[in-house]
Input
Amino acid sequence: MAPGAGRRKGRAALKAQRAKAPEFNPAAPGQSGGAYRPLSDSDLNAILDTALRLLAELGMGEVPDRLRQDLLRSGAAERPDGRVTFPRGLVSDAIDQAAKSFVLHGRDPDRSIEVGGDRVWFGTGGAAVQTLDLETGLYRPSTLRDLHDFTRLQDRLTNIGWFTRCCIATDVADPFDLDVNTAYALMKNTTRPVATAFTLAEHVAPLVRMFDIVAGGEGEFSKRPFVKAHISPVISPMRYGEDAVDVTYACLEHNIPVSCITAAQSGATAPATLAGFLAQSLAETLGSLLMVHAVRPGHPMVFSNWPLVVDLRTGAFAGGGGETALLNAASAQLSNWLGLPSGVAASMTDAKAIDAQYGAEKGISSLAAALAGGNLIYESSGMTASLLGASFEAFVLDDEMHAATYRTLRGVEVTEDNLGYEAICDAVLGAGHFLGGTHTSAAMERDYFYPSLADREAPRTWEENGAEDAWSRARDKACRILREHHPEYLNAAQDRAIREAFRVLK
Output
């Protein structure tokens, strides 16, 4: 055999293997997290003890009358100043009776996901009022068309577990029209599990009628709800928000799963110390759970204690940085330790462009949240500019980043075959390399994720191919998907019925 022929043969075999469609996803969504534990056992107990003390002694303020009566009936007490307090035993009962896991349904059952335990799912969130324009590369106000386009773009991305509207249609002024057209965009363009927000409680019942049309008839949606609600019933520090509480009641009435989001900001609406922040945030999110427990014990609720960081030099929200990564990982650990389905936020980069800052901040925070075992990781796809912006290119790049994270979570499978004793002996005594061997071919598809956007070519090849950067490659892929993918997940009768009942603007 000519010198180098074995290596060339091995490389040819690997290229042929790589060209085949993969039979196994080496980086499948829903991997197990929890290996990263930033808090020790004593830390966890100290934070919980402080949270329980806050609830028992300070309690929650600005409690709406309807909620006050339900909380008092469930075992809460009232201070002379009107704040409602919660005995430790009541909090323990609420945790014990809370839903520990539940199915987040997709309209396509194959796209449903189970929330809880140690499974990790990346999804979306946010209420961006600006969109990074695909043509100009600059920000402009987000529109209803953008929301439709973002929804159908993510429908083709592999690693997004559920989709929440990521931008606000600033061209729709009426709050009810906004809620209707947001929900319609989700129904039309994806069959994944979806989430939305309701501006007012009276918007919930009409939108459930829309969901019933999609589900096949009156009352069908509540049997298998494929929409969850994002609500912030607690306003930091330590008080309820009446409008959001009313929305929560309406959602529970219609069996809509809820993600009760606490979004305190360090040094502004919560302590600047990380430990104090976690204690208050835990108490506040338990305040949401106590509300759900008083109204409908065991109702599916995502325990979403999102730590948000303020740059104390300026007062500006900071979505990136080590503190954000650490705090959200710690929040996930706390929720999982209590056995509650956890929701945290990651990839909330402060970068405006798709640049080095963007990649560093997203990579650090999303990996930390996943390693800590966050069940639902919100904001993790498409968000830029400290949550003020959303980007089509970012959706595409983040999807590939999620695959790398899932591969990290999957870890190393140690088996007799994987240890490769015989393969090592064969290579040493035979060809002198592992290229083209059966052991290598089997591992190639099973153990490795191959990115389509990250560039691994030599510098000369990169130059010959136009010296593109990641932003350009992601833009090309996003444009291709938007050009080719025009789903019609509503049949003609459903679409007609919705348009007859609601003012659909697109």
Summary: The chain has a mean pLDDT of 95. Residues 393 and 474 are 5 Å apart (CA to CA). Residues 94-410 form a domain with the TIM Barrel fold (CATH 3.20.20.480).
